[in-house]
Amino acid sequence: MKRLRKPTRLAVFAALAPLLLAAAIAGAQPSERLEGRVVAVHDGDTITILDREERQHRIRLAGIDAPESGQPYGRAAKNALSRRVYDRWVRVEVVKLDHYGRVVGKVTQTGRDVGRDQVEAGMAWWLRVFAEEQSPEDQRLYEAAEARARETRRGLWRDREPVEPWLWRREHPRERASG
After folding, report:
1. pLDDT at 22
2. CA dihedral 164, 102, 36, 138 (to 10 degrees)
3. CA 124 to CA 73: how far, in whole Å?
C-alpha cells in the first residue's frame, strides 16, 4: 500500500490561489463604487477600507504614485494621507484591479478627490502613463495640481531632483513598501 504524502504549503497555496484570486476579483469590478471607513493607510497611495458588510478592500489610489517608505518624502506622504482619510468614510470609484489584486480607484472624501489632493500637496506624482484611465477633466486637474506643486515647491518638489517612485523601486527592489 502506497503511503500518501502530506501536502506542502506551496502545494496548498497553488491549489487555493485561483480561488483566492477569483474571490478578490469578485469583490470589486470596474465601474463599481465602494464605500467604507479607512482602517489602514499603508503608504502615500494605498489604503484599506472596511465596508458596511465589514469586508476589507485594499485600495490603490488611481492616477498617482507616492514615494516609497524608504524614499525621501515617503513617510511624509503616508502621514499626509493618514491625516486626510484615516478613520473617515470614503467613496471609491473602481477603475481596475492591479497585478497585486488591489482595487485601483478614484477615492473621494467629503466630495474631494484624495489622489489629486496628494499630488497638489507635493506628496505624489501624477501617473501620466495611466492618464487614459482618467476622464479628460481629471487629466487636466491632475496635471494642473502637479504643476502648482512644482511651481510652489511643495512637498517632494522641495528637492532639486526628486526621484520618481517607479525609478526608485527599480534601483531598490528589496526596499519596496508592502504597497
Report:
1. 42
2. 50
3. 9
φ and ψ of 48, to 5 deg: -125, 130
* SS3 state of residue 120: helix
- Domain 11-175: give its CATH code: 2.40.50.90
Side chain identity at residue 82, one-letter code: S
- What is the C-alpha to C-alpha distance for residues 153 and 134, in angstroms, rounded to an integer? 25
Verdict on whether the full-model pTM lies above 0.85: no
Name which of 119, 113, 116, 114 is nearest 154 in CA terms: 119
Q: What are phi and psi of 78, to 5 degrees?
A: -65, -45
Contact (Cβ atoms closer than 8 angstroms) between residue 176 and residue 68 = yes
Active site residues: 60, 68, 102
Q: Where are the beta strands (DSSP E) in 98-164?
A: 103-109, 112-113, 125-126
> For the chain, percent helix, then strand, then coil, each to nearest 5?
40, 25, 35
Percent of the chain with pLDDT over 90: 74
User: Across-strand partners of 38?
Assistant: 49
- Nearest C-alpha neighbor of 36 from the set 20, 53, 23: 53
Which pLDDT belongs to residue 100?
85
pLDDT of residue 21: 45
Around Cβ 150, how many Cβ atoms within 10 Å? 14
